[in-house]
Design goal:
The protein has one domain. The longest helix has 15 residues, at 4-18. It starts with a helix and ends in a 10-residue tail after the last strand. It is globular and about 55 Å long. It has 341 residues and is mainly β. Strand 17 and strand 18 form a beta hairpin. The protein has 2 helices and 21 strands. The strands form 4 sheets. Strands 4-5-6-8-9-12-21-13-20 form a 9-stranded mixed barrel. A two-stranded antiparallel ribbon has the order 2-3. A two-stranded antiparallel ribbon has the order 15-16.
């Protein structure tokens, strides 16, 4: 398990390679009425992460196990270079008549486990090659992302008018920079209020959860950038840090019935829910996290709240950029990961 001090060291190493923090010129609605703006960070709303087993057990991980991870969220605000919101919030642009979202998927390998009992313990995970692998940011002219349903974050058969803004692939853990490393500390089932969904109405009254928290980051090699949204271009090599608070249970967002599968469809997450109006809902009909999320599986759903900042990276060899095309992007994404034995 990586300690907090080691994570700080990892961040220092990454920044020493980066050179200087920079902003991106972003046109939030491409050819729409909003003007291009100097953006220092993308501040995402709290979102969902779904972990599924490839080998081993998500709820009882062992070193060497491989898991497939999916995540998604919508954008809360464009931040300026001082970390403040541009205007008041995201809806200050064109009165919220559009939205930005991201979806991502990649595999991770369990690199360390500290056993515990009763839903406790900790584990460290490292990004790995293979599996379903993508990172995509979308613009949607008709904002309709729904965290409870898990729809509207990308093309999924329900939402079909998304426009791709940026795309890349997640690269394996780098042992030199420590980018691609995630830890999760599970603290057991909360005996007083064990509900998975503690955000407003409990939409999953039959699903409880372990508690815990974690953090991490990962790197992405960009393969496409839409110039209509980045009129000033992007650095050929840049760092995107995702720093977020991650925790279970869900306190400031709804757990999702489904998550985007990256192939134009949806996959089961928590499954059927009771909506805020009391009407049974959720496009996915199978609960894949069991009666106690983090203990009964086979999958596990996690909460993630991220902010993306752009930092220009030094280019080691000019010739390598020609091979990389749009270049190498490093992305850190804070997600909650847990390992209990």
């Amino acid at each position: 398990m990586k300690s907090s001090s080691l994570k700080v060291l990892a961040g220092a190493v990454a920044l020493s390679m980066a050179g200087f923090a920079s902003a991106a010129i972003i046109n939030p609605d491409a050819a729409g009425p909003d003007v291009a703006t100097n953006v220092g960070a993308l501040d995402w709303n709290a979102g969902n992460v779904l972990v599924t087993p490839v080998t081993g057990s998500v709820t009882n991980p062992a070193v060497g196990n491989v898991f497939q991870t999916y995540a998604q969220a919508s954008l809360s605000a464009f931040n300026d270079t001082n970390g403040g919101k541009i205007g008041t919030n995201f809806t200050s642009f064109n009165i919220g008549n559009y939205e930005w979202t991201y979806i991502t998927a990649f595999q991770e390998t369990v690199s360390a486990v500290t056993p515990g009992a009763g839903g406790t313990g900790s584990a460290t995970f490292q990004t790995a090659a293979g599996g379903t692998n993508y990172f995509r940011i979308y613009y949607d002219p008709t904002p309709d992302s729904n965290s409870l349903a898990g729809t509207g974050f990308g093309p999924d058969g329900v939402d079909t008018d998304n426009i791709l803004v940026l795309e890349g692939t997640v690269i394996p853990f780098n042992p030199t920079t420590l980018i691609g490393d995630t830890t999760f500390q599970a603290t057991g089932v909360n005996a007083v209020t064990p509900a998975l969904d503690r955000f407003g109405v409990n939409n999953y009254p039959n699903v409880t959860s372990i508690s815990g928290n974690g953090s991490g980051d990962f790197a992405v090699q960009t393969t496409f950038v839409n110039g209509a949204f980045f009129p000033g271009g992007v650095p050929s090599v840049f760092l995107v840090n995702f720093t977020s608070q991650i925790s279970l249970p869900f306190l400031t967002q709804n757990p999702s019935s489904c998550l985007n599968n990256g192939a134009g469809g949806l996959q089961n997450a928590v499954g059927p829910n009771v909506s805020d109006t009391g009407v049974p809902g959720g496009p996915c009909t199978v609960n894949t996290v069991g009666t106690t999320n983090g203990l009964t599986g086979p999958n596990e759903i996690l909460f993630a709240d991220a902010t993306t900042t752009f930092t220009s990276l030094a280019v080691p060899e000019p010739g390598s950029l020609a091979l990389l095309g749009l270049g190498l992007s490093a992305i850190g994404f804070v997600m909650r990961r847990r390992g209990n034995v």
